[in-house]
Structure formats: structure tokens, C-alpha cells
Write a structure and sequence with these properties.
Elements (H helix, E strand, L loop, with lengths): L14 H4 L2 H31 L3 H37 L3 H28 L1 H6 L5 H16 L2 H14 L4 H24 L9 H23 L17 H32 L4 H37 L3 H28 L1 H6 L5 H13 L4 H16 L3 H26 L4 H4 L1 H25 L11
Length: 466
């Protein structure tokens, strides 16, 4: 007599465990790169439209930019910690712990947001007063910064949702959300700044409202995706209460990542202080360069964000071969990307600056910045890919030390020294490539240590988990 058997349900295999590394990296990285480029584009569009209000408006946005970037650093850095922990737990098939990390991450994001709301209410005027005494520049800066900080819920919750989706390899949805938010910003920027189509003319406030409006729209769409039944990691009320061990694990990677990215804010504040001693135009040029560089770096960041999820998953699954293949492919791709971007800067400096309604003085100072600072980008790509490996395997402190060394111990002191030795602002731009030479040496030494301590000792074949 034939025995009736109930077929076992099909085993669901995460694509990060089985797909070819190249297909996986570019399949996940391309949507991320495109969406991040769109984010960078709308920051540039902000500056382009604002520049038509006058150079003082462009300078105000440049002075506000470090605080705006500090807020993004906290949100993205925390998101990196959440992403890394969830990916590692999914790779180790510990699904409930992955959801616990998602719930605690949501609470952490809300608390972080409140800090910036308070600063937006009470700190913007003292901050702007510390950098400029020009009344118009001061008022423009206060208007822009107070709006983007007090209405930052969209930014924090959008980034939170994106990291939940990225940890599962669902980067197409991340791309979709970011593009929708960016398009909203790009469309409404000129409408609200200049009062088109019957809308009121809001000037600098219009630029800020368009920015936060795009972020809030992206947040709402992201929540729809997060609460979808197709989402592997669900946000559950029982996981919202903070657990010390989960918070510690999130910040073991997230806090160094926050410091790593926030150092860019410290560096920008310090350089603005050095540059404004020459002229406010130099600050405006540096702000323009930073925004244009953000577009140049976004394809690299999109690819490295994807590689971090893949490496973290396979590190959790103890698959050494896939970890190293992904890292090597990321390294080669990053070098090629940055080489192409350096060529664009070197060949088209005037065309880039002309987008921002540049004056003759801005063109003179900007040409040197656009051709000197990018010389270190190829070296930077190697350091960034190494840093992503550190974050993916839970050694985010190495990324923090690397960034500290580059931006605080080398870049800012060298820039200050050059400003004292030379009267022309062009000398300050050389601090950037000098810093990258130092950083790549340190990054490769750190990678050598990490490889010997954490990766070389992994089993040649991943264990079979039930």
C-alpha cells in the first residue's frame, strides 16, 4: 500500500546567497546608484535655482549645508547599523532577531530626529551668526536651515525604510521611492522659489519647502512598502521598545558610520572658516564643488551600499568565497567609476560653474578647485571600498578611524597650513589630494589586518544551515 506523504514546503532561498556576485552587485547597485544620483541632482537643482536669488543666497546655502549633512549623517549612519545587523541576522537565518533590529531601529530614528527639530527651533540663528555678518546671507541661511531641520521627519523615516528594504536586496523599491521624492523637489523648486503657476513667490523658503515636501512624499510611499505583506522583515509594535543589546549592536556599526559621515560636516565647517578669510566667493565655490562631487560619488556609493548588504549577508552565512568576490568586484568598479568622473571635472570646469550663474571671480576661483580637488578621487574609491568591508563585517570602528585620520588629522591641518603659507586660495585645494594619499595607505593596512583576523580564518565552504 502506497503511503500518503505531505510534500514539504519549498525552501525560500535569499538571492544574496546564490546569485552570481556580478549580477547581484550591479542588479542591486544600479537602482541604488540611480536613486542616489537623483537625490544629489535635486540638491544641485536647489543650488542652481537659489543662485538666481544672488550670490549671497548661494553662500547661505553653502554655509547651511554642513548642518544639513550632519542630519543626513546621523540618519544614514544609523541606517547603516540597522542594515548591517538585519543582513547578518538574515544570513544566519535568525529572522525574529532581524525584526527586533528593525523595530529598535525605528525608535532610534525617531529620537534622533527630535534632536534636529530642537536645533532647528533654537539653534539656527546662533549658528549662522557665527559665520556671517552680512544681513541678507544671514536671513537666507536661517530661513533655509530652520525649515529643513524642523520638518526632518520625512528624511529620517525615508532613510529608515530604505535601509530595511536594502537589507533584503529590494533596491528597486528604494530607487522608485527616491526618484519620486527627487522629481517632486525638482518640479516644485522653481515653482515655489519664483511663484510660478499661481503659487506664491517664497524665495529661499520655497527651496526648503520643496526639499522637505519631496522627503515627506517619499516617506509615505516607503511606509506602504514596509507594511506590505511581501516584505520579509516586518515592523512590529512589540519590537519598538529599546533593547540594550540590540541598540549596542546597531551602534557598533552605526555610530562609527555616523562619525565617519559627520566628519564631513566638521571638515566643511572648518574649511568654510578657512575659506571665508579669503572671500565669501570661495565658500560659494566650495559649496558648488561639494554638490557636484556628490553626483560624481553617488554611483560609487550606490554600488558600495549594495556590496555592504551582500558582504554582510555572506559574512553572516560564513561564505568566504562570495565575500571576497564581491569586495574585489566593488574595488575594480569603484576605480573605473572615479577615473571617469575625474576626467569630467578636468575637462569641463567652466561649464560646471556656469550652471550656478557664476561671476567672473567665482569662475577664477572655481577653475582651480574643479581641477585640483578631484585628483584624489581615484584613491578615495579604494579607501571607500575598504571602509565598506569594515562596516559589513561589524568592524565599523575601523571606518571611523580612517575618516578621522583623513579629515581631521590630515585634511584640515594641511588646509590651514597652506592658507598660512600662501595668500592665494588655490593653495588650499591641494590639501584634498594630499589627504587621499595618506588615507589609502592607512586603508590598505587596516584591510590587511581585517583580512587576517576575520576573513582568512573563515571555512573554505559555508556551513549547511537547516
Amino acid at each position: 500500500m502506497e503511503e500518503n506523504t505531505i510534500p514539504s514546503p519549498p525552501v525560500r532561498v535569499n538571492k544574496m546567497a546564490v546569485q552570481p556576485e556580478g549580477k547581484l552587485l550591479f542588479g542591486m547597485g544600479a537602482p541604488l546608484a540611480l536613486s542616489m544620483m537623483m537625490q544629489a541632482v535635486y540638491n544641485i537643482v536647489d543650488s542652481i535655482f537659489v543662485s538666481y536669488l544672488g550670490e549671497s543666497a548661494l553662500t547661505a546655502v553653502s554655509l547651511s549645508f554642513p548642518i544639513f549633512m550632519l542630519m543626513i549623517s546621523v540618519a544614514v549612519g544609523t541606517g547603516v547599523g540597522i542594515n548591517s545587523l538585519i543582513s547578518r541576522r538574515l544570513g544566519a537565518k535568525r529572522h525574529d532577531e532581524a525584526e527586533h533590529a528593525a523595530g529598535n531601529g525605528f525608535t532610534i530614528m525617531l529620537l534622533s530626529m527630535l534632536v534636529f527639530v530642537v536645533f532647528g527651533l533654537f539653534g539656527t540663528r546662533p549658528f549662522m551668526r557665527a559665520y556671517t555678518e552680512v544681513p541678507q546671507t544671514f536671513e537666507y541661511g536661517v530661513t533655509y536651515l530652520s525649515i529643513v531641520l524642523t520638518c526632518s521627519v520625512g528624511l529620517f523615516m525615508q532613510i529608515y525604510c530604505e535601509r530595511i528594504l536594502q537589507s533584503q536586496g529590494k533596491n528597486f523599491y528604494v530607487m522608485l521611492v527616491q526618484i519620486i521624492g527627487a522629481v517632486f523637489n525638482i518640479v516644485f523648486d522653481p515653482i515655489l522659489i519664483f511663484g510660478l503657476l499661481g503659487f506664491p513667490k517664497l524665495g529661499m523658503a520655497g527651496a526648503a519647502i520643496a526639499t522637505v515636501g519631496g522627503q515627506i512624499l517619499a516617506m509615505l510611499i516607503s511606509f506602504v512598502l514596509i507594511f506590505s505583506k511581501k516584505n520579509d522583515v516586518r515592523l512590529r509594535a512589540k519590537h519598538l521598545r529599546l533593547n540594550a543589546s540590540v541598540v549596542r549592536e546597531i551602534y557598533s556599526v552605526g555610530f562609527p558610520s555616523i562619525i565617519l559621515q559627520a566628519l564631513g560636516t566638521v571638515m566643511t565647517l572648518a574649511l568654510n572658516g578657512i575659506l571665508i578669510a579669503y572671500t565669501e566667493t570661495a565658500v560659494a565655490v566650495f559649496g558648488v564643488y561639494f554638490r557636484v562631487q556628490s553626483i560624481a560619488m553617488m554611483p560609487l556609493f550606490g554600488m558600495t551600499n549594495a556590496s555592504m548588504s551582500i558582504i554582510a549577508f555572506n559574512y553572516g552565512a560564513q561564505n568566504k568565497k562570495r565575500v571576497m568576490r564581491t569586495w574585489r568586484l566593488s574595488l575594480i568598479t569603484g576605480i573605473v567609476m572615479m577615473t571617469l568622473m575625474v576626467l569630467v571635472f578636468l575637462l569641463l570646469p567652466d561649464q560646471i560653474l556656469s550652471l550656478f550663474n557664476a561671476t567672473d571671480e567665482m569662475l577664477r576661483i572655481g577653475r582651480a578647485a574643479m581641477t585640483i580637488i578631484p585628483l584624489g578621487l581615484v584613491l578615495a574609491s579604494v579607501s571607500i571600498v575598504c571602509s565598506v568591508m569594515f562596516q559589513a563585517i561589524g568592524k565599523g570602528s575601523y571606518s571611523m578611524y580612517l575618516s578621522l585620520a583623513r579629515q581631521l588629522f590630515v585634511l584640515v591641518p594641511v588646509a590651514w597650513l597652506l592658507s598660512k603659507l600662501f595668500h592665494e586660495v588655490t593653495a588650499v585645494w591641494w590639501a584634498f589630494p594630499i589627504a587621499e594619499v595618506f588615507t589609502i595607505v592607512l586603508a590598505l593596512w587596516m584591510f590587511y589586518r581585517i583580512y587576517n583576523d576575520r576573513i582568512r580564518t573563515m571555512p573554505p565552504e559555508p556551513p549547511i544551515l537547516a
